[in-house]
Each structure stands twice: as structure tokens, then as C-alpha cells.
Amino acid sequence: MMTCREVSTLVSTGRLAEEPIARRLAGWVHLSMCRHCRAFRRQIQALARIAGRVSTGFAEEPSREFEKTIIERLSR
Fold first, then answer.
1. CA-wise closest residue to 4 among 48, 46, 45, 38
2. Nearest to 4 by CA among 26, 32, 36
3. pTM (two decimals)
4. First to last CA, the chain
């Protein structure tokens, strides 16, 4: 059986799905039995979703009006 450290490393790096079938199955068995690793996996998945949403906000440069507003507020 895989350890929590091994499973958490594979989950956090996203490499669990890339592992050979025997190791992947051992990881899934561990996840089915370990509530801590399942919780960690859910947290990692949530962070990935949030990071994806945040990154779309940086796809374009802020408008000149935004920059002007920030400079005015900082000048006060």
C-alpha cells in the first residue's frame, strides 16, 4: 500500500493519472481508504479551479481609466 506522502505527492503534482496501472490502482485504493488524502485531493482540486478562474482575469491589460483611478486614489 502506498503511503500518504507518496499519494499526496502524486496528487499535488497531478501525476497520479500518468503512473503505471499498478501504481495508479494502489493510489486509488489508498484514496478510497484514507479520508485525509481524499480531503487533500479535494483541496488541491479546489485550488486548481480557483487558480484557473483567477488567471482568466489577467488575460488582458487594465484600461487606462483603471490606472488613472488607482493613481488618483493613491494621491489622496
1. 38
2. 36
3. 0.70
4. 62
